[in-house]
Amino acid sequence: MDAYDLITRNASEVVTEDEVRALADDPDGKRAYVGYEPSGVLHIGHMLTANKLIDLQDAGFEVVVLLADVHAYLNGKGTFEEIRETAERMKEQFIAYGLDESQTEFVLGSEFQLDESYVLDLHALELETTLSRAERAMAEIKSGESVTVAQAVYPIMQALDIVYLDVDLAIGGMEQRKVHMLARDTLPSINEDAPTCMHTPLIADLATGIGKMSSSKGVTISMEDTTEDIEAKVNDAFCPPTADPEPTDDGEARENPVLQIFEYHVFPRFERVVVERPDKYGGNLEYDDYESLEADLESGELHPLDAKGALSGYLDELIAPGREKIDA
Ligand code: NAL
């Protein structure tokens, strides 16, 4: 795979393709980052952007993980002390998950976001940003019902962080895209470049295939799950024999989360996927790429229950090292 294909594989959106091509042509010394609000334990959403960071490390990028303690505080995720403790735990879990410690810089937001020059630049950006724009940028990130002033400051700080961390490529899930667009539009007003961004897909709710998987509601998979938890959740998952399920009777779009997890979590991390089956059911199936697994599920060659059995095993393997860090 060439550098551009590796850097952009499984991305939902690249802003802009030309800018990412320029980075891919000379990745040496280039910096990419993801920021995470420390809250709870690592879950499958964190793992999806982490997969992208691993791709970027393989392509030669330096990777910065911002443990966004001030952002989590502004978003009502707890006391500063609690958030700091969670940040330390998340860092260990990211390394256990497979981020190369020697190629990854972990930064706490509070290490630089309280400096005088940062705060003054923040106020300069606040002057350039309407409240309604900030509110729209937060629509898919904020917790709770109302938007607080703290949550309006949040996306402006996120934009400024891209400057202060000196990164060439900002990565986030699709829920971060409006913050990144705000950054592209407003940073030039303080004489900074519009940042290059790339967004990873969101996985549908495991049980229903409707909407997106979230740690605050519905079913998700996290590093706290035991092998048995994973088996139970995956067994109960929505998995019709198609990658393109019909909408619900109410017209809500649906995805196949089992296939999504194979595509975005399993194939990027394993060279070959083996679905074990007894000989009387045709014996094992082996796949070198996601597309052939999807085709077999659609044709009926691969039964959803067998696909789920394999998925549980691979997810368990991905999660096991991080789970040990929690138990330790
Ligand atoms: C991500 C978050 C917070 C601050 C950031 C600063 C720079 C780049 C990315 C950042 C957290 C993210 C979340 N908004 O929803 O978890």
UniProtKB/TrEMBL annotation:
Location of the protein in the cell: Cytoplasm
Example of a GO biological process term: tyrosyl-tRNA aminoacylation
Q: Does the keyword Iron-sulfur apply?
A: no
Which HAMAP family did the record assign? Answer: Tyr_tRNA_synth_type3 (MF_02008)
By its UniProt entry, which Gene3D superfamilies does this protein fall under?
HUPs, Tyrosyl-Transfer RNA Synthetase
Function statement: Catalyzes the attachment of tyrosine to tRNA(Tyr) in a two-step reaction: tyrosine is first activated by ATP to form Tyr-AMP and then transferred to the acceptor end of tRNA(Tyr).
Family the entry assigns: Belongs to the class-I aminoacyl-tRNA synthetase family. TyrS type 3 subfamily.
Where, in this chain's numbering, is L-tyrosine bound? Y33, Y154, Q158, D161, Q176
User: Which residue numbers does the motif 'HIGH' region cover?
Assistant: 38-46
Q: How does it assemble?
A: Homodimer.
Task: Give the UniProt keywords, A-Z.
Answer: Aminoacyl-tRNA synthetase, ATP-binding, Cytoplasm, Ligase, Nucleotide-binding, Protein biosynthesis
Q: Which GO terms describe its molecular function?
A: ATP binding; tyrosine-tRNA ligase activity
Q: Which domain of life is it from?
A: Archaea
For this protein, the record's InterPro entries field holds: aa-tRNA-synth_I_CS, aa-tRNA-synth_Ic, Rossmann-like_a/b/a_fold, Tyr-tRNA-ligase, Tyr-tRNA-ligase_3, Tyr-tRNA-ligase_arc/euk-type, Tyr-tRNA_synthase
For this protein, the record's SUPFAM superfamilies field holds: Nucleotidylyl transferase
Identify the species of origin: Haloferax marinisediminis
Q: Where is the motif 'KMSKS' region annotated in this sequence?
A: 212-216
Positions contributing to ATP binding: S215
| Gene designation | tyrS
Supply one GO CC term from the record.
Answer: cytoplasm
On whether Protein biosynthesis is a keyword of this UniProt record, the answer is yes
Its Enzyme Commission number(s) read 6.1.1.1
Q: Which reaction does it catalyse?
A: tRNA(Tyr) + L-tyrosine + ATP = L-tyrosyl-tRNA(Tyr) + AMP + diphosphate + H(+)
- State a single Pfam family of this protein: tRNA-synt_1b
Protein name per Swiss-Prot or TrEMBL: Tyrosine--tRNA ligase
